[in-house]
Write a structure and sequence with these properties.
The protein is an alpha/beta fold. Helix content is 43%, strand content 25%.
Length: 254
């Protein structure tokens, strides 16, 4: 039997996530939009429609602006104020910090959105800190965008499926511990690889793998003929249970 190295490095996982340009561009666009809205809120001292004595200005619609990124062109709506005093350094700062910002977004895809990470991204984009409430609102909206990203329907068939796990240190309930990152890679008939799912689990087990693979099927995963994974007993049991139609092959690290 042919030996195949299908282990994913951190760099390979990042590259595969970025290869889904349409979905990742949507998430990145949400980040930039939310940062611009947060800047405007801080500048005029009020949210949209908010009545407060701290207000020092009023919104006045948007103008369109494009931003070229490594995952395509973002079509943006930049907020304006009535007095015309609002300005942003986001576009210039983004070009200087794109690599680090995209890496941070990939980490959030794998480990989940956190206020700390959103705070770091918005400060990097704008060069100054936002209030806790503004960051919290941006975090909630970004969480929704990322949730839609990795719950998107799987419309096309993937005859080959690679299942793997790597361990990363993650914070949960103020405790940093090693957790399993479950990864599913689909390969289409033209040989193109695509990340289909990434999910954190306390550890690799039959139940965690079964729920992960079943979730892929619920999202529309179909057409599997061949599944490659390591020889983890829980994973193999989950494959037999959820993907009985597929042929299984053990992967080897060369």
């Amino acid at each position: 039997m042919t030996k195949r190295d299908v282990r994913l490095s951190r760099g390979e996982l990042k590259a595969l996530l970025l290869s889904d340009e349409d979905s990742f561009r949507s998430v990145l666009q949400t980040v930039v939009h939310e940062t611009l809205e947060a800047e405007m809120t801080e500048a005029i001292g009020a949210e949209k429609g908010e009545r407060t004595t701290e207000r020092v200005g009023y919104r006045s619609g948007y103008y369109e602006r494009k931003l070229v990124t490594r995952v395509g062109v973002l079509e943006l709506r930049v907020p304006q104020d009535r007095a015309g005093r609002f300005s942003t350094e986001l576009f210039e700062r983004y070009q200087r910090s794109e690599k680090a910002l995209v890496s941070a977004l990939v980490e959030m895809y794998v480990q989940g959105v956190s206020t700390r990470k959103v705070k770091a991204i918005t400060e990097e984009l704008c060069g100054h800190a936002f209030s806790a409430s503004t960051v919290s609102e941006a975090t909630a909206r970004l969480d929704e965008a990322l949730k839609a990203f990795f719950e998107q329907r799987l419309a096309e068939p993937y005859p080959y499926l690679i299942l793997d796990a790597r361990y990363e240190r993650a914070r949960e309930a103020d405790v940093i511990a090693s957790q399993a990152v479950l990864v599913a890679i689909g390969v289409d008939w033209e040989g193109r690889r695509q990340v289909l799912g990434v999910e954190l689990a306390n550890r690799e087990s039959h139940s965690s793998w079964r729920e992960f693979v079943a979730g892929l099927k619920q999202r529309g995963l179909a057409g599997m003929e061949f599944v490659v994974s390591d020889d983890h007993p829980g994973l193999r049991a989950a494959i037999r249970e959820v993907l009985p139609e597929a042929v299984w092959q053990r992967c080897y690290v060369q």
